[in-house]
Amino acid sequence: MTERIQRPGRIGPTTEQIRHELERVRHRKLFANTLRSTIFILIVVSATAVLIAVLLLPVLRIYGNSMNDTLDEGDIVVAVKGGNFDTGDVIAFYYNNKLLVKRVIGREGDWVDIDESGNVYLNQNLLEEPYLESKAYGETNITLPYQVPEARLFVLGDNRDVSIDSRNTTVGCIADEQIAGKIIFRVWPLDKIGIIK
């Protein structure tokens, strides 16, 4: 039988040291779990934000000057997908792999007419357009008055001198499947932030 002799000066860890080490290990596990949960939440929130931006509320940047002074080049806007579009609504739509922004003037079955001074008539009634700085006949190669075809929208830019829109067969009337959404809010620049009318 062998006896164990404890050498003087060699003492095991104290209860306080063991408690401290256990607390450190517990804290490390808690930190790792919290970090993992935070990263997971950030990924879920980011994915949700991307899905909302792509599917429901696209964020768009304005290029060109066909909507001056309502929207200027460089403005960043939020659109809402789907829904019915009324006369006066500003919409974004796809045309030749580009996203164009114009204002809805007429819907299917409506008659649109434009006189030489740029006054727009919808179903023989002069259209009030307070959003325009100036009126213009613009580049028009359709026969007026023009009846909007079924399941289409007749659109015009607010800068009528330069806008290529439904007045020209190059763009023509817009089909539902082309529409990216109705532009509802400008988020940039900050001094112009607000609802689009």
Helix content: 10-25%
Q: Mind describing the biggest β-sheet?
A: 8 strands, antiparallel
N-to-C span: 98 Å
Assembly context of the chains:
single chain
Second-tier CATH architecture of the largest domain: Ribbon
Mean pLDDT: 81
Compute the number of strand runs.
12
Class derived from helix and strand content = alpha+beta
Poorly predicted runs of 5 or more residues? none
* Number of helical regions: 1
Secondary-structure element sequence? HEEEEEEEEEEEE
Computed over alpha carbons, the radius of gyration is 32 Å
CATH superfamily of the largest domain: Umud Fragment, subunit A
Write down the CATH topology of the largest domain: Umud Fragment, subunit A
Q: How large is the share of residues in beta strands?
A: 25-35%
Q: What does the overall shape look like?
A: rod-shaped
